[in-house]
Amino acid sequence: LATGPRQNNGIFYEIRTYDIKPAKMKEFLEMVNKYFHFRTAHSELVGFWYSELGAMNKVFHIWKYDNFAHRAAVRHALANDRDWQGKFISAALPLVEKQHNEVAYLVPWCQLGKPPKEGGVYEWVTFQMKPGGPALWGEAFRAAINAHINTGYTRLIGVFHTEYGLLNTVHVLWWNESPDHRAAGRHSAHEDARVVAAVRDSVRFLESQQNVLLIPLQCSPLK
């Protein structure tokens, strides 16, 4: 089925999710902060986080590419980068239980944002929508997102719609000052008639939803 409208350039984002062995998370994060400059020398890292609530022992990272040829060139260069392969990959892979990646585009009405300051927390919300793509549920979904933005308690960073991976999946990345600030904002939003109406309309197209609270790593451009 057609995925519907998307940004009219070739830029896409690769979303990588790794499950780390529970006893090895601290070691893995230390290695990322120490050696990830070898990886970011090849292409743009949007952000790197580890899960705090909603999922255990997971890391999330997002990469930006101009097009698929750009990604192929980067992957080729990484395979031949001795520092990256020798200092990070060879030591990090035994710490990883599972890897998953997706290719996604920003939805046409969203530009990648930044938090107003460093030191907050991020919320990664995954919506599995009914088949049909944005042509079916796009307007209602956008209205629900805007209703939350208009409450002012949270900052939208990006809305990503999958092209490769599980289709009809939308990932929404939010920023909040703290988990308590987010909780208070959500409580207020649940009592806001505009939010209630928009969510009620959008949820008709929803199959499932998962929320994960994320903490940015030292090496993450989004902090």
TrEMBL record:
Residues 13-111, 122-221 form the NIPSNAP domain. One of its GO terms (biological process) is mitophagy. One of its GO terms (cellular component) is mitochondrion. InterPro entries: Dimeric_a/b-barrel, NIPSNAP, NipSnap_domain. Pfam families: NIPSNAP. It comes from the Eukaryota. Belongs to the NipSnap family. This is NPS3A protein. It comes from Cinclus mexicanus (American dipper). The gene is Nipsnap3a.
